[in-house]
């Protein structure tokens, strides 16, 4: 009989290590509100952004024209010529000279020279910016080039008309006071029409300056427009076949047109004013057409 084999000793059961205490949960903090990183789309400029319009361009051109020396000099010389020469002529006239003529007729002699000042200023309003290169800054601030040119035309015409009407009116008042017993012809209309004529002549110069973009060239061109028709008929009248042309040139040149506007001859200058308005409108159309087609 076999003896039982002693069983192998069993390893002691492993004793479990004590479990660490459960961590105490900290009180939950509210999750921070997520904000997108600042970028171009989320930036808010402190400067208010508004859509530009013609009024802004007009305000800019008004600042330019009243802050440059050329405006003060040319308008100052214009007033000196029109008022100064007008006063001198009025002092040399008598009551008999105003029976059928307006009291503003002495201003005509000053305007014959003074119109050159408005022509010069009209050219400089636009050509000076091309000469200095500042026109690039202007077109960068206002990419709509037609708006810039329209603002220049509006501001210049307003300034030229007001100054011209003021000068003619002052001469008319002086003549009326000096020859109050003459009972001259109505002269209020000549103030408006005379100022309108020389202002349109200045606007024509501005349009020519915009097309040529050169101060000396534009001023020379406009002086030719004013002076050449005044002396050309003397050469055209030599030939009988050219006499009708000479008579038309003589009728519509700038000097005789001004005389007609001041009712010298009795037609009132309506046709001359209409011809100048058509020529000026054509020049403005050409200036607008060329403005966007050429680089600065």
Automatic annotation (TrEMBL):
TM spans (from-to): 72-91, 103-127, 148-175, 187-209, 216-238, 273-291
Bias (Pro residues):
1-39
Superkingdom assignment: Bacteria
Q: Which UniProt keywords apply?
A: Membrane, Transmembrane, Transmembrane helix
Q: Does the keyword Transmembrane helix apply?
A: yes
Q: Where is this region: Disordered?
A: 1-42
Instruction: Tell me the protein's name.
Output: ABC transporter
Q: Which organism is it from?
A: Streptomyces ruber
